[in-house]
Write a structure and sequence with these properties.
The chain is mainly alpha-helical and 93 residues long. It has one domain. The protein has five helices and no strands. The protein is elongated. The two termini are 21 Å apart. 2% of the residues are buried.
Amino acid sequence: MMKLLMGTHTEIREFLIDYVENALPALRKIQFRMHLLACTDCSAYLRKYNTSVKLSQNYLQDPPPEELVNLTLKFLEERMAAKEREADPYPCH
């Protein structure tokens, strides 16, 4: 795993909440922003994290109807089962 100015990628994920909530010390915040400019993986992870937070906030404010949730879960279960049936039992790695 790539070693950063401030730690490994795993260590960065551990303080991501503090970064998002603007609770990091100034030097740490600057180091992380510099890292984000160079690391597409962490930048993408941060974008997905922020999107997840926004979606969960919206869900708490206005949850979808239970019927929609059940239909979505059923659809996903059926898709996963179909993909498993289509999967090659001996995939080449």
